[in-house]
Design goal:
CATH class: Alpha Beta
Number of helices: 2
CATH architecture: 2-Layer Sandwich
Strand order of the largest sheet: 1-2-3-4
Helix content: 40-55%
Structural class: alpha+beta
Radius of gyration: 15 Å
Distance between the termini: 40 Å
Strand content: 35-45%
């Protein structure tokens, strides 16, 4: 799996990178084939913004959030992504099990 990190207006941190990598790897359990992930981390004034984008199983999922702490922003973005993935999987399963008319 290819995870790329982009840092804007803040210095690269191994601790934050490891934390975000673990979150993305946790999300990869939902997929058969995770193609790539992009993690964009930036600071605007006092807000820390985390954007996570995952390309997997022919789909693209993107979520971002802002907080006063980068770890909290990553957590919230990861939660949003997980919600999107669950909704998508439920839709796919619903289509497969829907009776044809």
């Amino acid at each position: 799996m290819d995870i790329s990190f982009h840092w804007h207006n803040l210095e690269q941190s191994d601790a934050i990178e490891d934390y975000a990598r673990k979150k993305v790897e946790k999300l990869s359990e939902h997929f058969n084939k995770l193609m790539s992930a992009v993690v964009r981390l930036r600071v605007e004034k006092i807000d820390h913004i985390a954007e996570l984008a995952i390309h997997a199983d022919g789909e693209q999922f993107i979520a971002s959030d802002r907080e006063h702490d980068m770890y909290a922003a990553i957590d919230l973005a990861e939660a949003k992504l997980e919600k999107q993935i669950r909704r998508h999987k439920e839709k796919v399963l619903d289509r497969k099990h829907r009776p044809r008319s």
